[in-house]
Specification:
It is found in: Cytoplasm, Cytoskeleton, Microtubule organizing center, Centrosome. GO terms for molecular function: gamma-tubulin binding. This is Centrosomal protein of 70 kDa. By secondary structure, this protein is mostly helical. The protein folds into four domains: about 55 residues, no CATH class; about 50 residues, no CATH class; about 30 residues, no CATH class; about 45 residues, no CATH class. It is built from eight helices and no strands. The termini are far apart.
C-alpha cells in the first residue's frame, strides 16, 4: 500500500501534473504506524479528480447540445453514453464547432435558408406570383422582358447617338426634345399650308368668312327661288337663257 501511495504521490509531484491539482508540501516519508506518512493530501486530490471527471461529463453534454445546433449533420457517436469521457472526445466536438464557425465566416456572403425564403416571398409579392411553382416561369418571363428592354435601350442609344452609359432619364429627355422639334415643324408646315404665319390672321379670315358667307348664301337662295331652280348646277344655263 505504501508503494502504491508513493507512486500516486510521485505522479502528483511530477512536472506533468496539472497546475490546479492540490499539492502538499511533502516531507520525508515516515513510518505509518501511528505517525503521519505524508499522504494526507491524496484524499483531497482524489476528490478533486472525481469532481473534475463529473464536470467533464457535464461539459461533454453541453458541447453535444451546442454541436446539435451548430453542426447537426454530424452523426451521433455510439459511445456518447459511455461511462468514461475522454478529453479527445471534447476536443473533437470543439474542433468541429470551430471549423463550422470558420466556414461560416468565410462564407458570410452565402444567405441562410430564412434569407432565401424571404427573397422568394419578396419576388412573389413584386411580380404577383401566387405559388412557388410559378416562380421559375415568372423569372423566365421577367428575364425575357428585361432582354427586350435592354436591346431596345441599346438601339435607342445608337439612334440618338448617346453614350451607352447614359441613364434612362437622359434617353427620355432626348426623346422629349425630339418630339418638341417634330411638333414645331408640324406647326410650321400647317401655317405654311394656311398661307399665314400668324394665328390672328387666321382668326381674322374666319371672321370675314362668317360675315360674307351668310348674305351671299341668302342671295343665291333668293336667286334660285326667282328662277324656280332647285339644283345649283342649273343656275348657269338659266341665267344664260335670261340673257
Amino acid at each position: 500500500l505504501l508503494k502504491v501511495l508513493s507512486q500516486i504521490d510521485s505522479i502528483l509531484q511530477s512536472p506533468r501534473a496539472p497546475p490546479l491539482i492540490y499539492r502538499h508540501n511533502k516531507g520525508p516519508v515516515q513510518d505509518c504506524r501511528g505517525q503521519e506518512c505524508g499522504f494526507e493530501h491524496l484524499p483531497l486530490t482524489i476528490e478533486m479528480w472525481a469532481d473534475q471527471l463529473m464536470a467533464l461529463k457535464d461539459l461533454h453534454k453541453t458541447l453535444r447540445k451546442l454541436s446539435v445546433e451548430l453542426v447537426p449533420w454530424l452523426t451521433a457517436d455510439a459511445q456518447d453514453n459511455r461511462a468514461s469521457i475522454r478529453v479527445e472526445d471534447l476536443q473533437f466536438i470543439v474542433d468541429a464547432i470551430l471549423e463550422e464557425i470558420e466556414n461560416k465566416e468565410k462564407d458570410s456572403q452565402t444567405p441562410s435558408l430564412p434569407t432565401l425564403f424571404a427573397i422568394v416571398s419578396h419576388f412573389q409579392k413584386l411580380f404577383d406570383v401566387s405559388s412557388l411553382n410559378g416562380v421559375y416561369p415568372r423569372m423566365n418571363e421577367v428575364y425575357t422582358k428585361l432582354g427586350e428592354m435592354t436591346n431596345a435601350m441599346r438601339n435607342i442609344h445608337e439612334l440618338l447617338e448617346l453614350d451607352s452609359s447614359a441613364p434612362p432619364t437622359v434617353v427620355v429627355d432626348t426623346v422629349g426634345k425630339l418630339c418638341d422639334i417634330v411638333n414645331e415643324n408640324v406647326m410650321e408646315q400647317v401655317q405654311q399650308l394656311l398661307g399665314t404665319q400668324d394665328i390672328h390672321s387666321i382668326i381674322k379670315k374666319l371672321e370675314e368668312h362668317e360675315c360674307f358667307f351668310p348674305p351671299f348664301q341668302a342671295l343665291i337662295e333668293d336667286l334660285l327661288c326667282l328662277l324656280e331652280i332647285s339644283n345649283m348646277d342649273d343656275i348657269l344655263p338659266a341665267v344664260h337663257n335670261l340673257k
